[in-house]
Amino acid sequence: MITVVGTGTGAAPSGDVLAGAELVVGGRRHLDAARLPEAAERVVLGPLAPALDTIGEYVAKDRPVVVLASGDPGFFGIVRVLAERFGPERLDVRPGVSSVAAAFARVGLPWDDAVVVSAHGRELRTAVNVCRTQPKTAVLTGPGAGPAELGAALRGVPRVLVVASGLGSEAERVERVTPAEAAARDWGTAVNVVLCLDEARALGPVRTVAGPGERPAGWALEEAEFAHRDSMITKFEVRALALARLGPRPGDLVWDVGAGSGSVAVECARLGAAVTAVEKTADGVERVRANAAAHGVDVNVVRGAAPDALAELVEEPDAVFVGGGGRELPAIVGACARRARRTVVVAMAALDRVPAAREALTSAGLSCDGVLLQSSRLAPLPGDVTRLAATNPVFLLWGVRPPAVVEEGVAQ
Prior knowledge:
412 residues; alpha/beta; 7-stranded mixed beta sheet; 5-stranded parallel beta sheet; 29% helix; 24% strand; disordered C terminus
């Protein structure tokens, strides 16, 4: 067996766990804190591959191995790697208190409704986008993805960061800072986890299912669910297909360009994505904000006319919906297509604009497809009978970046 011991928040493992171990693997601080058998071989964890090879040699000879890990090793920890390599049946896992549980305990908050995201060895942008949308997020940090980098990316977002360092040790620190304050400091290497909190919503309702807030029971909502001007709103049939092609999900950033009422922006936010809506009119900006508030989601609204306003948006989007543009549509679609990491969806009522929009998508290296959507809705007539009322036809184009380019994180 491979005994995997979570040391909790700084506690050393008991001697009985280590007794008889012939190989002990762990971080240097874990090995230094433990009372190891004198005859046991010690391997300091650095690169995983050599350590796994050594463990494999002992396992092949049925020699006992102990792996020391931080917190709960089954929670974003080494248990996954060990189970994949040696099989879960060979593991005897003894979890400690995870850094996430300890950090929330220090600030007196439940965390059954928290979203936990790891930025250790991963892109920080996913964690940032989750923090923008969720009222309670725990971010597991790593080199280049610590409190300073997280704070810099969240400037202007109404959040409080709780930085927990050295949990369980004599040097433990738990500090509340604004994103700007976090960005201005050097936090060193002792940070365990950063909690990102919207303090007004940090105590959510009692939960039945752990994790983020309940996903919407439906989408492609009726137009009546949104405030809009003179029926200037993406109809629900069009919105349904647009959402299917955009694929908004937690960790994504979506742009809604020419947002109008913000119906697409709000629906993407309801599905968990971080959303920036670009709208050129003052009343449109207020309408988008009001619709977002009415549906209980956060939408970052930028006032400006595309394509020029897009230059002010620093982060590259995963997906973009273009719902307005007029004569500037080809330039807007081109600007979005060059920056989108995954897909761009364009809705148009005018036949004449379709070829130029398609050319803008393909010129940016996206594969392009589309449909003409025509629908007729049931409408009542006198005498308790029903007719079909046709809606205006809409062209929907979508451009998709080739998978290999998406994997490399290249936006052409």
